[in-house]
Amino acid sequence: MKPLEGRKRRWGDRHDGFLVRNLDPMGKLIPYIMKSKSDSWVLFEDRIDITHTQDFLHTMRKTEIPGLTLYHIIFAAIVRTYSQVPELNRFIQRSNIYARNEMKGSMVVMKGMQRDSERTTIMPRFEMDATLKEVSTEIEALASPIDRTKKVMEDENRNDFDKLELALGLIPGWLISFVFSLLKFLDRHGLIPKKLTDLSPFHSSFFLTNMGSIGMQPVYHHIYEFGTISIFGAIGSKETVYELDRNGVQHRKTYLNMKFVVDERICDGFIYAVGFKHIKSCISKPEQLMERPKKIIHDKIDRK
């Protein structure tokens, strides 16, 4: 099931989203007051207790999901949250707010850990009721074929994004500037070809980067002006600490730091608060991700 599945396009809609028509006065004015993402980004940071999550992860690796990673759990937590807080899956173009009609994540995959290593990007798509196992399978289906020993140019298994990137790289610099100016114009007016947005990681529900994989703590990563991404998340290295409870008993705890940069214009602070509480709950109690959500909540975008 996709967001707003079965809904017919109306005047003002785009191929990648439906116009939100029931905004309150403040919601309608904010995109005109803050015209760009750089003018409207908000920073979120949280520290999540993943002590239980680590135990769950090790158990699942031995039983139901052999290749499971913490990264998969976080992806699944975000997907589940979007199914319950659909306002997060919105974007802005030309001061209009749109509800995205798909669930698409983006992530960078390094082809090595040397200074000259190249990178590629994969864009898994998910159903709104996806379980943890399905999210993990979808990500690995795109990540596993990547040959980590070869450059992008030499990799026979390079994906369609790599092919597009290589083709654009052959264009002279002055022409690249013109091409992207044209693409931005087309995107603002909802005319950019669907084949391009399908291949673009900049037209995704969210982008997530794993700084912990290179031994770093998370950074606040910008949300690109090009494209329709409204949320960019980063996770860092795990931290193990020893804490005393109220009875003075020492416990070993593992924490994960996460940072998000979001576009303030797509929804209000209350909705963001609900969404991030839901993400935190799903990460710290991942058992709930093994089952489908009891209910899918679709974005309410029409006037009453």
Strand order of the largest sheet: 2-9-8-7-5-6
Number of helices: 8
Number of strands: 9
Helix content: 25-40%
Oligomer: single chain
Q: What distance lies between the first and last C-alpha atoms, to the nearest angstrom?
A: 24 Å
Task: Summarize the structure in words.
This protein is α+β, with helices and mostly antiparallel strands and 304 residues long. It has helices at residues 25-33, 51-62, 70-84, 132-143, 160-169, 173-188, 194-199, 269-284, and strands spanning 17-19, 41-49, 90-93, 96-100, 105-110, 119-122, 206-210, 231-244, 250-263. The chain has a six-stranded mixed β-sheet, covered by helices on one side. The protein has a three-stranded antiparallel β-sheet with strand order 1-4-3, with no helix packed on it. A hairpin with a 5-residue loop joins strand 8 (231-244) and strand 9. Helix 3 (70-84) crosses helix 4 (132-143) and helix 3 (70-84) packs across helix 8 (269-284). The chain is globular and about 60 Å long. The model has no long low-confidence stretch (mean pLDDT 92).
